[in-house]
Amino acid sequence: MRIIIEKDYEQMSKTVMDLLLAKMYTNKKMNIAITAGSTPKRLYELLVEEIKNKSDFTNVTYYNFDEIPFKKKGGYGVTMTNLKNMYFDPAGISMEHVHALDEKNYTTHDAYLESVGGLDAIFMGLGKDGHFCGNLPNTTKFGDLTSKVETSIFPRMYDIMKSEVGGNEEDIPDFYVTMGPRSVMNAKETIIFVSGKEKAGIVKEAFFGPVSENVPSSVFQLHPNFTLVLDADAASEIKDLID
Amino acid sequence: MRIIIEKDYEQMSKTVMDLLLAKMYTNKKMNIAITAGSTPKRLYELLVEEIKNKSDFTNVTYYNFDEIPFKKKGGYGVTMTNLKNMYFDPAGISMEHVHALDEKNYTTHDAYLESVGGLDAIFMGLGKDGHFCGNLPNTTKFGDLTSKVETSIFPRMYDIMKSEVGGNEEDIPDFYVTMGPRSVMNAKETIIFVSGKEKAGIVKEAFFGPVSENVPSSVFQLHPNFTLVLDADAASEIKDLID
Amino acid sequence: MRIIIEKDYEQMSKTVMDLLLAKMYTNKKMNIAITAGSTPKRLYELLVEEIKNKSDFTNVTYYNFDEIPFKKKGGYGVTMTNLKNMYFDPAGISMEHVHALDEKNYTTHDAYLESVGGLDAIFMGLGKDGHFCGNLPNTTKFGDLTSKVETSIFPRMYDIMKSEVGGNEEDIPDFYVTMGPRSVMNAKETIIFVSGKEKAGIVKEAFFGPVSENVPSSVFQLHPNFTLVLDADAASEIKDLID
Amino acid sequence: MRIIIEKDYEQMSKTVMDLLLAKMYTNKKMNIAITAGSTPKRLYELLVEEIKNKSDFTNVTYYNFDEIPFKKKGGYGVTMTNLKNMYFDPAGISMEHVHALDEKNYTTHDAYLESVGGLDAIFMGLGKDGHFCGNLPNTTKFGDLTSKVETSIFPRMYDIMKSEVGGNEEDIPDFYVTMGPRSVMNAKETIIFVSGKEKAGIVKEAFFGPVSENVPSSVFQLHPNFTLVLDADAASEIKDLID
């Protein structure tokens, strides 16, 4: 586990961009899974500015690692829509360099990844409950490959899904799909980046507490090439645990 | 997870030798941890024949991954003595190419490995109880680094230790040391090889059942570069699970 | 430059087999170009015995690096016919794991190799005149990519071609094709293996003399990952130059 | 050969910084040789701003690849002084992370590099005469390892040396030292970056003309992992040669 602590959200975003560019600039075919959501907002702004209209990165294929389909609306789901809006479209990245995981192809996703040589890197955020990708506590097991998770799995999930699809009840899907812990651990490199004081507690629990399915992200303590990038706030409870 | 099934113990040993030679022949510095015990007996016979008196492998440093000290006798412990007798001495490998983990240096073993760039590969056997290295059920947790395990941890351990030190009660140590699951998962490549019908059940349980601390080896389902080499007997209960 | 010296042809062949298996056993997609001719005869016998009917090597795609077409007879050329007879057929390797360079596709061969990620390794012999692949002195330049060489390029070439196609004048082609020095240098790893006293002189000249187009193989002094495997006879003139 | 063309010097410097950061951020020990001179001026300004006072890069060891000693003044030579002033000192990089090649240790430099696993990358400029490092036309041969070049080798060299040491004739050394073409080609990755219209001609000649010792940099056409970064001016004569 490598831990990089930056002074604030801006600098954390810049460093994650550097880690991502480090993959993109290797001159090798690269399969990279990236996260949607709010944490990477600044990351994608910086990245768009950096690579916009550059033709040098045809070696990169992008992947999402989870997807919430819009039940009624159809088309790209919540994650891919978000990635297109924040990153692919403004950066001028053609969708032919993107492989979309969705509710139709998830059962063959792991086999597909294996056929293309596996993920070289996966960039993820961390949930306040310790989740990564769509692996919330009590949804998946460490041994799970890419799976579906039913909206009915526990009561709170209905509200989460409702919020994710923008509040429209007709669009709440029966299930979402996510790469499971075992799928993600198969990636050659795993990166989690976290910002903010409200996540300082779970950072400590996930990466300095026991490895347990109750805190899904704790599994990365077991990954041979895992990097944790934090801003000072997110790192505020682990300062005494590292030198 | 890559699974290689060979027809018998002889051929399994030959294939593990090929995997080991594949590391040794890379022309890079290689840190390789290897197992003692009965399963690798034929492996080392073949390997000694292959590399005896060859000077081409100075790029390799060997490591043991657990050690049972002789309480009274002192000197090298059970594992290193076994490795010297089976492999290092007959192959003419100088101990300057071997880094011994022991009861004195185990607390700094993980930091040491990190300082030399980590293990490139670790070759292990599988216990009938699902253990790997010295990680028996109920001795270590997934999150443990290199640790000591007390002989008094549970009653059966006394008998195990007695047998390991050759039956001499005076030599039974107060504890043995082992790389923990987290330490082993840090290796770039992990390999387990298994022979014999009596292990067919645990092979199925460990690599096709749930990932659980009750079956320590199940953790390798989560390693991005894990190879399982079996003879036909050891593979007899998983035939219908693989194509 | 790594130099491995073995006591005789048998042991040299075994070591080259180990180097080849080291690539095959990496659990990654591997593009490997291999040599036809007389030097690898024992190599392929050993290898066939080792991997016959094993299904574990679907990660490997094989390539030839030069080809002499049969002008009248057509079909596979001299090199591919030879490789099929010595290795692919007896080892049970399907031609779907082989990419044949020939007189029709040579102009796009370098672009093709780039599209599949490049050659991971190329195993070659050494000619008494210092040639490698079809790069004889005065046929290609260091900067040449995959090229054709006219049979009329110099008088001796006619006899070489006649001998290569088995003596039948009607089958002597107008040109043969070969990966050029620049194409071969693009491979991630380059290996040359040499046997016999009659090549001891050129071994010294090529790898311990000046880098010069007059001795095409001298270019490998400039490759960052080059291995030279010799038997004692082939190494007899360089003993005082290495420690 | 990978070619990256940027619109101007600023953007070229930024891209070279990204390539350098890509190495630094790999989480592995990295041996990186870097260039002094005027071309990298902006590169180091950007880089200093980026990494100043960051403690995350202790995995990197820096190397110079040539050195011009001050005959009278002594101490660090021209290259290392320049690198210290432009990069190491303002970035807060301790000299314990720098390995200086100099006039005293050059005969063992290649052996030293081999002992530390070789250079992972070397970042170089290009001279108007096609030189790289201290390999000017008619000074070294392709097959040369790290060598000394006498100031008396040809008349113009005296003036070059005089200018390099700042005009003080007493400080003109009898010889300078440089990694030779063979030493540099041993690096796992080679990068040359070039700015300005006055170098557009030599860019074309070196990378699109014959491989020849008369244009030392042409040797990189033979390197399996070579990247050329140009600004639009430097690329102005090769536009029709690339797509």
UniProtKB/TrEMBL annotation, chains A, B, C, D:
Residue ranges of domain Glucosamine/galactosamine-6-phosphate isomerase in the record: 10-221
CDD domains xrefs: GlcN6P_deaminase
InterPro entries: Glc/Gal-6P_isomerase (IPR006148), GlcN6P_deaminase-like (IPR052960), Glucosamine6P_isomerase (IPR004547), NagB/RpiA_transferase-like (IPR037171)
Keywords of the record: Carbohydrate metabolism, Isomerase
Pfam family membership, one: Glucosamine_iso
Family annotation (Gene3D superfamilies): 3.40.50.1360
GO MF terms held by the record: isomerase activity
PANTHER family given in the database record: GLUCOSAMINE-6-PHOSPHATE DEAMINASE-LIKE PROTEIN BT_0258-RELATED (PTHR42892), GLUCOSAMINE-6-PHOSPHATE ISOMERASE (PTHR42892:SF1)
Descriptive protein name: 6-phosphogluconolactonase/glucosamine-6-phosphate isomerase/deaminase
Originating species: Breznakia pachnodae
